[in-house]
Write a structure and sequence with these properties.
alpha/beta, globular, TIM Barrel
């Protein structure tokens, strides 16, 4: 397979993803564009915090917005709040031209049947807007593995829900990488791939993985992830995902946003199939 387009998750260029203003927003978009990325995945609340004109900053940069992130309320089942959340994300995606809406579970799932129904409900609303939901599995949560994400999608009727494969979580998921599962799912099930690597430690206690994920990811190509196997599997199933960098690394960030964006871009380009 060949992947020529590369996106960035510019939230990685912030010391605190919950703290952003207009200047920081403009700077992380400028850094992403200058490094040579083609597209971005954005948190819509960043645009709100950045103030009037933030969407125009993105449009003027020449970057395409492929995804907005993330729906998180669905795990307790359908509700008015869940509908309001997904409709807000859909509206942001429509304004920015995105076609993927990220979803995640940030804690435990107390009622799996409700979570199945909740995920199916937001996927159905996204379908009405010609968008897909892409569910990210996070090892320390109620959706810890790719298999768990896949099962939720199947049990919900496979209605317009896909999987976000983050290669950090792929490595740190309980049981490790599941290449056989990846080679067996429908090609359109994998809509979004994020590139990054765990720290050098081969194993990490589960209660430390979230902190590692937010502060100590390594550059793609550092040696933990078998990208050739991933690309071969995606090619085998006929997948054509949106691919973006997501390297949260406090040490790299000390070099500055523009420098970090460039280093991450170049590392990602080096592991893309051609």
């Amino acid at each position: 397979m060949q992947i020529s387009s590369l996106g960035n998750c510019p939230s990685t260029l912030l010391a605190d993803i919950m703290a952003i203003d207009g200047d920081a927003f403009r700077d992380y978009i400028d850094a992403t564009a200058a490094a040579g990325y083609d597209s971005v995945s954005l948190y819509p609340f960043h645009l709100m915090f950045a103030g009037d004109g933030a969407a125009q900053v993105v449009k003027d940069s020449g970057l395409t917005v492929r995804a907005v992130e993330a729906a998180i309320g669905w795990t307790s089942g359908p509700s008015d709040n869940v509908t309001a959340e997904i409709d807000g994300l859909i509206a942001s995606a429509q304004d920015l031209g995105a076609d993927i809406i990220g979803a995640a579970c940030l804690g435990p799932i107390d009622d799996r049947a409700a979570a199945v129904e909740g995920l199916a409900s937001i996927a159905a609303r996204a379908a009405q807007a010609d968008m897909v939901i892409s569910l990210e599995f996070l090892p320390w949560t109620g959706v810890p593995t790719m298999a768990a994400a896949n099962d939720l999608i199947i049990d919900g009727g496979e209605v317009n829900a896909t999987i976000l494969l983050d290669t950090f979580h792929w490595m740190r998921q309980p049981g490790g990488p599941d290449i056989d599962l990846l080679r067996s799912v429908p090609g359109d099930r994998i809509a979004y791939v994020q590139l990054c690597e765990p720290s050098a430690a081969p194993d990490m206690p589960l209660d430390q993985v979230e902190d590692e994920a937010m502060h100590r990811r390594r550059l793609p190509g550092a040696g933990m992830v078998d990208y050739t196997a991933i690309w071969d599997a995606l090619d085998h199933i006929g997948s054509d995902p949106f691919v973006a960098a997501e390297v949260f690394n406090d040490e790299l960030l000390t070099t500055g946003r523009h420098s970090m964006a460039q280093v991450v871009h170049d590392a990602c380009r080096a592991v893309l199939p051609s």
